[in-house]
Design a protein that fits this description.
single chain, about 0% strand, elongated
Length: about 80
């Protein structure tokens, strides 16, 4: 009985590693998940700060440099 318990972690690890390798090897289309904001203007920035984080203003987004803004909502996939 102890031999089976000792073999269980390596077998589980190999199974999990195989699943990860299979998942990374799938050739899926990255555009299959449609984006709501493609071709549209970004929503307005919040008017209230979240904790100690400073507010992001529209002027911050128009500096002419590349800016990454993470628009997230509870309904996002």
């Amino acid at each position: 009985m102890n031999r089976w318990l000792l073999a269980l972690p390596p077998v589980m690890f190999l199974g999990l590693a195989a699943m990860f390798m299979w998942g990374m090897g799938r050739n899926t289309d990255p555009s299959a998940l449609p984006s709501t904001f493609v071709g549209r203007q970004a929503p307005a920035t919040p008017a209230e700060p979240l904790g100690e984080t400073p507010l992001l203003t529209p002027a911050d987004l128009r500096t002419g440099e590349v800016t990454v803004v993470n628009f997230w909502a509870s309904w996002c996939v």
